[in-house]
Amino acid sequence: MSGEGDFLAAYETPRLARLAPNLFAACFPLMKLLPARFMLERAEATGHLQHGGPVAETTSGTFGLALALLAAVRGFDLTLVSAASLIDDRLRRRLEFLGAIVHIIDDPEGSGAQRERLAQLHTILEDRPETFWPRQYDNPDNRMAYGRLAEWITREIGRVDCLVGCVGSGGSLCGTGGFLREVFPDLTIIAVDTHRSVLFGHAPGRRLLRGLGNSLVPSNLRHEMVDEVHWVGAFPAFASAHRLHHDHALFMGPTSGAAALVAAWYARKHPDAVIFVILPDEGHRYQHTVYDDGWLAALEGWPAAVPDEPETLARIEARGEGEWTRLVWHRKPLATMIGAERGV
Amino acid sequence: MVSGKSAPRGRRSGGGANSTDRQTERRLQVGVGRAMAHHGELLQGVFEGADGKLHRGLITLPLAAQQSTVTFWPGGKGGIRTRPTDRRKAARAAALTLELLGFANVGGDLTIESDIPVGHGYGSSTADVMAAIRAAAAAAGATLRRSTVCRLAVEAEGASDAIAYGDQAVLFAHREGRILEHFGGEYPPLLVVGFRTGGARPIDTLGLPRARYDGQEIEQFRVLRGLASHAIRQQDPRLIGRVATASARISQHHLAKPRFEAVTDLAEAHGACGVQVAHSGTLMGVLFDADEGGVATRTTALAKTLRQAGFKGIVTFAVNVDGVFLQ
What we know:
The structure holds 2 protein chains of 2 kinds. By secondary structure, chain A is an alpha/beta fold. Chain A has helices spanning 7-11, 33-45, 62-74, 89-97, 114-127, 140-144, 147-156, 171-183, 234-248, 254-269, 293-297, 334-341, and strands at 15-20, 23-27, 55-58, 78-83, 101-105, 162-166, 188-193, 228-232, 275-279, 311-312, 324-328. In chain A, a hairpin with a 2-residue loop joins strand 1 (15-20) and strand 2 (23-27). In chain A, helix 3 packs parallel to helix 4 (89-97).
């Protein structure tokens, strides 16, 4: 994917897995390295980032980890702002070990404290105005970074009829999907979200499944590119991650479980189509949670069976953590879909 | 016989110049070289090289049915004369080749016979240059690597294309004369209905301004490169057609072809794989899978429709297909 000879360039490259005769997966150790590296290089090229930093960002985890790896290797000052419900001690210690300064905001109701995190970030930017803020939610370079993934997909697979991926910033799905649609205009794009994320019109609320969804709508999410949205609750996502591990020896995170669940269903329904799914990170970070029986046993509603298919909704509505729903989105803007709900 | 490796390079020195000249004239023979035309590109843009930097590059669509044939007749001094006269790039290419092979300051006559139309993007000038290099090499009894032929062509002309690689599909840095990626195979089997858009007026293809691609286009070129690699590996005409169409669409922002959308509609209606353009020229081509049933009927029907629509220079040719196919 890159001519750059360092380890991180290789680390940002996925492995290919064939989950079904017509279903291929890009298994990333840490997908966010791709946009992190691209955004930093673009910022350096345009003079927004001076050699040695500083860089500051608000993050729920993996984008921060990607920045911290790059900061360590390339030697720039990095400050990260996160929320208590998003980041555990292990990850915080790892980020600090890599040399990052980590600010953690309390969010007892588990909302992710997106607004408070941004306020804190603005304080940092005011203190040091030369700071580069990658803005993964709104920086179009986030989407642009995925030309590399789309290149990798076309090189490995050739034709793709359907792309399935999780949405948090919108960068990976809308970036990759946009590049692929230039060669495959009929490409179906399926977004995977979770209940009580605002990305596709739910009211914000507590979410057990982290690493996808959002409490703000980022501009890198292009709703009018999306054919279909799925809301996967935490339990089907966890169970699907376990199944990926058991059936395919793929040790991936719970968002990968959610994406694989949706992709496998679509692949069964469309045996003549070629489906590609993006699996954004590995399971190591979740070994003491999603892959820990004790942690799981404490969850009300667990164990849960993996549903065979989603419930097709007629309108936008949030459900419980055990449920999996879908809505045909018709490449519409968010306002249109919410307006339709209200009878506008 | 003199080989490229063992031949002394550069000018010879010393008092024995006359005898040396006589000796080199005796060792040079009449040499003939050929090079084919192309029909624009399947892909053109900027691409990341092994050095991590961006390079302008292209995948040429070869047109083997049209050729330039150059004959070098050694003799005399005072440089290389050409027939037709004033083909300076071809003369320079021959001189550079002879110099490389250890025959500096050799004179002679270069006869250029070509059936490639000038100034539409068929690469007539490059074909003359390549054929001249091959003629000069043949005159010296030498063979040249394709990469050397390309490097000499760039030196003579300022740019080159990938026709030196013949039926081998490569991503070629045309301003530098070197390969960015060898796709490791030949072109997928294609039938092409080619034609000229716009006026019959030839243009100075090398004098055109270079396209300035934006960031989005540069990232899109990665995807087209990846898909081209897959299409060539799998010998898939459908996918190479997708590459060509997407590349042609980007080219519309830089050197727009008139009636582009009308042509893509016709291509689709005739079951084609895609369309391609000459990124510096007036040519367009509609690509068909040469192995598909009924393809000859569909190319004939399309050629007729294009003729009725007023397009000029309509020709159907084959790429990597058994037998001869040219209408």
